[in-house]
Amino acid sequence: MRQLRGQERVITANRQTSWAFADAFVAEDEALRWARDRARDMGLRSVSPGTGAALRLLAATADAKAVAEIGTGTGVSGIYLLNGMRPDGVLTTVDTEPERQQFAREAFRAAGFTNNRARFIPGRALDVLPRLADGGYDLVFCDGDRLESQEYLAESLRLLRPGGLVCFEGVFANGRTVDSAAQPHEVLRLRELLRTVREMQDELLPSLLPVGDGLLCAVRR
């Protein structure tokens, strides 16, 4: 039994190394590095390169023309999403801080996207999302307030067309989601989200991707 535990430790170490390699696999251009620097200056956490690459892949696989993003930040995730979307696709991105969105505008321009490729809406997501069209989106990316994750899920199901994708960033919460120690309310809400998505088998086809800080994805059936 001791030998088995040792083997498990080796496998775990190898997996961690592999995940780190996968997360650094995608090279980022100057526009993405500029957006990351702005996020760092503002004390914001950006999606990892591995998470960004996964979002780009999912947007391309869905042939996404309309994507909604909760949490613009300084534009890192938006650039990845736009790179995966159709050339005529439009990203609708929501954030409570207009200053962040101004940085994202500059980052999108630097990445070569014209102004008509993105629609910036300042405000609280739960105030903005009800105004968006039912079934009008191919992908919804949620990187906002973790305490509101269940509400984001409900709005996403309304917004998505059949076959559309919803994605939640940061569901590992730096390992706290699977930690048995007492956790803050936002982590408990993430656990509730994971349970809810897993149990909605009639409506969703889920997958939990070990990129960045955890990317929970589900296809609306």
Automatic annotation (TrEMBL):
InterPro entries: Cation-dep_OMT, SAM-dependent_MTases_sf, SAM_O-MeTrfase. It comes from the Bacteria. PROSITE patterns: SAM_OMT_I. Pfam families: Methyltransf_3 (PF01596). Keywords: Methyltransferase, S-adenosyl-L-methionine, Transferase. This is O-methyltransferase.
